[in-house]
Specification:
The complex is a heterodimer of chains A (340) and B (327).
Chain A: H1 2-6, H2 12-26, E1 59-63, H3 69-81, E2 85-87, H4 99-107, E3 111-118, E4 122-129, E5 135-144, E6 159-165, H5 173-186, E7 196-208, E8 211-219, E9 226-228, E10 232-243, E11 246-252, H6 259-289, H7 334-339
Parallel strand pairs in A: 1-2, 1-3, 6-7
Antiparallel strand pairs in A: 3-4, 4-5, 5-10, 7-8, 8-9, 8-10, 10-11
Chain B: H1 5-14, H2 18-33, H3 42-50, H4 72-82, H5 88-91, E1 93-95, H6 113-116, H7 123-148, H8 166-225, H9 241-256, H10 261-270, H11 284-288, H12 295-299, H13 317-326
The chains are: A alpha+beta (340), B mainly alpha (327).
Chain lengths: 340, 327
């Protein structure tokens, strides 16, 4: 089977028949009449039809050592979604990065998605066009895999995706370059042997907050009602290189802050707050213990002294006269008035 | 870095110009303030000053701001080399802004600057933005796909392997159903609780009304029996509706005041339902709680002995007989 695949050109009828047999075995229940050519209304065209697969893209998806379960699942999900992908064993981190190019060549792949985990916390992703082409390094964040129960959509394994890009990708040269790279990597070639002939899901790449957001939706109805399938992640561009996994830097993201710096900043801020509190406490202590001025004389004592003429002191020797109240006794009390 | 007066002197000897002295002072100042100035030796500084690069006064070293590579030409060149011109069918790519938001009544497909830049922190808005972008793509792509003969709907009997296994989809379905059930249950429980409260209130009211009626009837009958009234109106039942209404109105006003003070205090102390059994333990908090200590009461020695015995003490038999005899 693999031998047939490797031979280029002029495959002829032999390979085609072999493929067809396998395809029939895969689909249990699909009647075989639908495969044979006559394209009337909803016949299913076979994915491989006499060597029409021309766009030979192969993506190598693998990782370095020290990845965690989420990354591993993400890789597996990407391999599931992309039938034109190949897997490889984990690369030892001792080897330099350009070794990846050799691995790609061995596997006969011309694109590569390489995941690198540092400190068991940060995940970096390299996307490269293998022999000479450009490559880019990203920091991956907010990973959600296919297996999350909130992603309720589903799609055919190996169906071709629609790719949807934000118009912002055309505005800047680095994003235009990245767009081309994504298109070539993520789009499944037409008539790929492992692909399904239907288009039932769509990838979206959007730029927000200077990062690239990736989403995958299933197309349910013809009126464009969508459900998310997953996986989903956010890419933060670090650098774009001219060569594959090396070469001169074409673009460096000025807004990128490495996760170490980010963590360090948080720690410094916390430390600064603590130090400030301590300083304030020390100042208070000093104030309390320092010698205080003895205020025996009040300098503001005469502010409110308003000299006024003295009144003569009058001592009453007789009782005061009784006062007559001017209450009108004829007027009834309020309650009585109300009662009436 | 210590100012080295040894090096100053040969400099003085070499050039005895006014400038030179100024430069020395400046060097001293400069060297005092900048300790990282080890790269620029004195000779270099002299030369720089002589050629007019340095000016008299304080010269402070600043860091050059870090330059980020942005090789636009290089990128364009790279893109030109790298891009492949394939028919649309091969790549299935579309670039478009999000579809118009029916719910928020946006106008037209022209992305307004306010709407164009989505706020990444507002989760809902952001996800809706992505969703609408995908929708716009799908709407545009479907006619193109049908033109190329690629189907998006698969026939009913087309069974093929899916990205997520059937087992997984079952799990998802179960989770959704369970969420819905929980919601429904909580709704039902709330409604039931409300009903029960209401029902109890109604029941209590009815009982009270009946008791009041009974009492009124009994008093009316007694009065007739004792000869106080000779009217038999009480037998006709409730005819005094307008009069009753005012009584009811005042009763409602009384009921509106809510539970009386005793009830309130007890509620406050013991709570509204919940765990009742373990409430009066000696915990740290209850032990340290001295809010119910009344110094007056605690320190009053003796005082009234419960109002001097019982208040409503019933008089003895002889006294009662005497009283009866008198009346």
């Amino acid at each position: 089977m693999s031998a047939f695949k490797r031979k280029r050109g002029g495959q002829g009828a032999v390979g085609k028949k072999a493929k067809k047999a396998k395809v029939v075995a895969d689909r249990d229940g699909a009647p075989s009449e639908t495969e044979q050519g006559t394209k009337n209304e909803v016949t299913v065209p076979a994915p491989v039809s006499s060597g029409k697969w021309t766009n030979k893209e192969r993506v190598l998806i693998f990782s370095s050592r020290g990845i965690n379960f989420r990354t591993r699942h993400l890789m597996q999900d990407l391999r599931t979604m992309m039938p034109h992908s190949k897997a490889d064993t984990k690369m030892d981190r001792k080897d330099k990065l350009f070794v990846v190019n050799e691995v790609c060549e061995i596997k006969n792949c011309n694109k590569c998605l390489f995941f690198e985990a540092k400190k068991k916390q940060d995940l970096y992703m390299w996307i490269a066009n293998s022999p000479h082409g450009p490559s880019a390094k990203f920091l991956v964040q907010n990973i959600h895999t296919l297996a999350e129960l909130k992603m309720t959509g589903n799609c055919l394994k190996g169906s071709r995706p629609l790719l949807s890009f934000d118009p912002k990708f055309d505005k800047e040269p680095q994003f235009a370059l990245l767009k081309e790279l994504f298109i070539q990597t993520f789009s499944t070639p037409h008539y790929h042997p492992k692909s399904q002939p239907f288009v039932d899901h769509v990838y979206t790449f959007t730029i927000a907050d200077n990062r690239i957001w990736f989403r995958n939706y299933q197309i349910i109805e013809e009126d464009a009602s969508l459900v998310e399938i997953g996986p989903r992640f956010v890419l933060n561009l670090i650098k774009v290189f001219q060569g594959s996994f090396g070469g001169p830097t074409l673009y460096e993201n000025p807004d990128f802050k490495s996760p170490n710096m980010h963590r360090r900043e948080i720690r410094i801020a916390a430390a600064a707050r603590v130090r400030e509190k301590q300083m304030v406490k020390e100042m208070q202590k000093m104030k309390r213990t320092e010698a205080k001025q003895d205020l025996s004389k009040d300098i503001t004592a005469d502010v409110f002294l308003t000299p006024a003429p003295e009144k003569p002191v009058h001592i009453e020797t007789e009782a005061p006269e009784p006062r007559f109240s001017n209450k009108n006794k004829r007027k009834a009390m309020k309650r009585q008035r109300q009662r009436r | 870095m210590v100012v080295d007066s040894g090096t100053m002197e040969p400099a003085e000897e070499q050039q005895q110009e006014q400038e030179e002295e100024e430069e020395e002072e400046e060097e001293m100042l400069g060297l005092d303030s900048e300790e990282e100035n080890s790269e620029m030796s004195d000779d270099e500084l002299q030369e720089a000053f002589a050629s007019g690069l340095l000016k008299p006064g304080m010269n402070v070293l600043v860091d050059q701001p870090k330059k980020h590579v942005n090789n636009v030409e290089g990128m364009k060149q790279c893109l030109a080399d790298f891009r492949k011109d394939l028919p649309w069918v091969e790549r299935l790519v579309l670039t478009n802004p999000p579809a118009e938001d029916v719910l928020s009544q946006a106008e037209g497909k022209v992305p307004k600057p306010a709407n164009g830049d989505v706020n990444a922190d507002d989760d809902f808005q952001r996800e809706m933005f992505f969703y609408r972008q995908a929708q716009a793509t799908v709407l545009e792509a479907l006619p193109l796909l049908s033109k190329h003969g690629i189907a998006t709907k698969r026939p009913e009997d087309y069974f093929a392997e899916m990205a997520k296994s059937d087992q997984h989809m079952q799990k998802i379905r179960k989770k959704l159903i369970s969420k819905q059930m929980i919601l429904e249950k909580s709704e039902k429980a709330k409604k039931l609780r409300e009903q029960r409260k209401f029902g109890k209130k109604v029941q209590v009211e009815v009982i009270q009304k009946r008791q009041k009626e009974k009492k009124a009837m009994m008093t009316a009958v007694k009065r007739y029996q004792k000869g106080m009234t000779d009217k038999l109106e009480f037998l006709e039942g409730d005819k005094k509706q307008p009069g009753k209404d005012s009584a009811q109105g005042s009763k409602k006003a009384a009921a509106k005041k809510g539970p009386n003070a005793k009830r309130k205090f007890k509620d406050q102390k013991f709570g509204f339902g919940g765990k009742k059994s373990g409430k009066k333990w000696n915990t740290k908090e209850s032990f340290n709680d001295v809010s119910s200590f009344r110094a007056k009461v605690a320190n009053a020695k003796g005082g009234k002995k419960g109002k001097g015995g019982k208040q409503n003490k019933r008089p003895g038999k002889s006294v009662r007989k005497k009283m009866k005899g008198r009346s």
